[in-house]
Amino acid sequence: MASAAPAKAGGLGGGIATGAGTDRRWALLAAWVAVLLASDVAAIVSELHGHELPTWNALARAAVIVGLAVTIPRAARPSHARGFMLALAAMTVGGWIVAVIQGQVHWFAVAPRAQGMLARVFVNLIPAALMASTLVGSDLSRRDLFLARGDPRAPTSLPLVRGAPWSVIGPVLLAVTSVVLVVQLAIVSHAAQYFRPAVLVWGLPAALLFAVVNASWEEFCFRCVLLARGARAFGPGQAVAASSLLFGLAHYGGHPSGLSGVAMATFFAWIVARSMLDTRGWTWAWLLHVAQDVIIFLMVLMTGV
Predict the structure, then answer these.
(1) By mean pLDDT, which of 6-15, 56-65, 137-146, 223-232 is the weakest?
(2) Residue 62, φ and ψ in degrees, nearest 5
(3) Does the pTM exceed 0.70?
(4) Which one of 48, 67, 284, 303 has the fewest CB atoms closer than 10 angstroms to its CB?
(5) In Å, how far are 2, 202, 223, 224 from 241, measured between CA atoms?
(6) pLDDT tens-place string over residues 184-197
(7) Residue 72, SS3?
(8) pLDDT digit string (tens) for 235-275?
(9) Is 299 strand, coil or helix?
(10) What residues have CB less than 8 Å from 70, skipping those under 6 apart?
């Protein structure tokens, strides 16, 4: 009898721990399903098979994500796990609204590509606003969301250069990623035959406007909200991986495009996400992103593709 009581207590404790662990694993699995539903993976697969998904499928995907969010067990830190998924649902609904606007406004179909990009970046503030609405009532501060300068000199956690200050690594990455992007875009768009130095001068103000707005809303949506929620719910590693994959898949049809564009965008997203976690701010992430977007806009302005 004396020995049986501890065994029973130990068994009960093990059951609770196992149950809680199962709940957290279910929450993580549901979150990854939500990431894939919110991503462009279905559209990419459909395009590769010669089909195009109907616009309304975004609403169906958002509904499934909300359904997954409400299934999160209490033991799985439901506040931030659900917040993470609801933010993904808001992003998906926002994407549907953007698609409807672009489909209804004929100008987007006939406008020069650079002009369309510049106009579209302001329409894309809709998903950002919807994702921001999911933060109402949360315990996340501006600093929790990385909407702060942070410490730009903080040591990096990136492999191979771990411990080096971001004040050194940041400029190096800015130069390297810019050169790689220019080469990739030049190869894909055959930009050499379109190169016009004058465009770099008169197109720079529009490029800066595009870059500042685009980098701001993309950093907020793909990283600030998702990292803040995801890191608290599932840990920093899972949050970085999920947000990076989501960002990469979103660039399949963008600049850079295709599978190489997805790989480059995913790797870029991983780097800037690490910079946010290391510095507790978005300074380097935003600067790196703005630099890439200036290059992209000027390239499109010169080539029209």
Answers:
(1) 6-15
(2) -60, -40
(3) yes
(4) 48
(5) 49, 38, 11, 14
(6) 777 776 666 777 77
(7) coil
(8) 999 999 999 999 999 988 877 678 888 998 999 999 999 99
(9) helix
(10) 82
* Eight-state DSSP code of residue 254: S
Give the CA-trace dihedral at 210, 213, 214, 220, to 10 degrees. Answer: 170
Tokens 């997954």 belong to residue = 68
With 0-12 CB in 10 A as exposed, 13-18 as middle and 19+ as buried, what is 259? exposed
Provide the token pair at 73. Answer: 């067990």
Question: Greatest CA span in the chain, whole angstroms?
Answer: 90
End-to-end CA distance of the chain: 80
For CA atoms 226, 97, 53, 263, the dihedral sign is negative
Contact 247, 225 (CB under 8 A): no
Amino acid found at 156: T
What is the token pair recorded at 273? 């996400």
Round to whole Å and give the CA distance between 175 and 183.
13
The span from the CA of 261 to the CA of 246, in Å, is 13
To the nearest whole percent, how much of the chain has pLDDT over 70?
A: 89
Tell me the two tokens of residue 17. 């721990």
Strand runs labelled E in the chain: none
**Tokens found for residue 137:** 């009532």
